[in-house]
Amino acid sequence: MDIRELRYFAAVYRERNLTAAAKRCFISQPSISAAITHLEAELGTTLFIRHKKGMAPTESAAQFHGVARRIIDEADAARNLFRKPATRQPLTLGLLRTLDQARTIALLKPLTANADLALRLVGANEKADARIVAKTMIGAGEHFIPLWSERYVAALPPSHPLTLKETLRTTDFAGVPMIDRCHCEQQEFFKRTAPPRKPVAIAESEEWAMALVAAGVGVAIVPEGVARGNPDVAVRTIEIDVTRQVGLAYPVGNPPSDVLKEFIASLPRQANSRRVRPTTRKMKRA
Q1: According to the model, what pLDDT value does residue 129 have?
Q2: Domain 3-81, what fold?
């Protein structure tokens, strides 16, 4: 067992696909497949179930992943321990404030692992080399690479009466205490389509909105990724099919730097993403 095999295992575990993992590790698919087979033989257990759509990790893989990650991280830390400071390539990245924690980690991990990169994070509307934003937010002359799509859902306190319904109508929210979110890019849409209401709270972050919901203060309309996996809130679909497409936007007039190209190549493939060809919003002539 060597560190390369552990890196290949971690890539397959993350991507759930040999081709995608091989691309991430810059090796051929047969090479990464052989490494996984050798690792399974050495450990004496099956790590992945092969099927037509990809690789499904077993319980053994889930147990081994934590150990493998610690070894990889410690090896990287040891490599950087005596590394001399070098001129680092700057990259300023704008981030949508309504991204969920899991996707934020997946997006930034490849960047923070690059010791030659000087990363600076700013708000989605600030000047940046590139931005992770909803497609509705891209400006004229920006190139957009879609990453995933997700719908909006209702996050409710677990004991709320509306949890008895599987799907909620806009009329169900009449008279219900609602929690608005400062940075919701669909806020105006929901105000137009929902019955008039007075919010009981305005949350400045997604974590604060979920905390208020869990505390029983009210109900919030949030991107599904924000609510899913939170054991303290209940999630219900809403009858209005509102989705947002999130992706990477960068100026067409400025060719991407080498570090930005590397970031684009490392962008994670989300399980529920709907890949679309890159689009460009052209500037309108006066």
Answers
A1: 93
A2: Arc Repressor Mutant, subunit A (1.10.10)
Residue 185 or residue 151, greater confidence: 151
- Cβ atoms of 246 and 99 within 8 Å: the answer is yes
Tokens of 256: 């991407």
Q: Cα(151)–Cα(63) distance, rounded to whole angstroms?
A: 32
Whether 150-243 and 89-147+244-281 are alike in CATH topology: the answer is yes
Q: Which amino acid is present at 128? A: A
pLDDT at 79: 80
Q: Beta-carbon neighbour count of residue 237 at 10 Å?
A: 15
> For residue 270, what pLDDT is reported?
46
Q: How confident is the model at residue 261 (pLDDT cuts 50, 70, 90)?
A: confident
Domain boundary assignment for the chain: 3-81, 89-147+244-281, 150-243
Cα–Cα nearest to 139, from 155, 154, 128 = 128
The structure tokens listed for 282 are: 């052209």
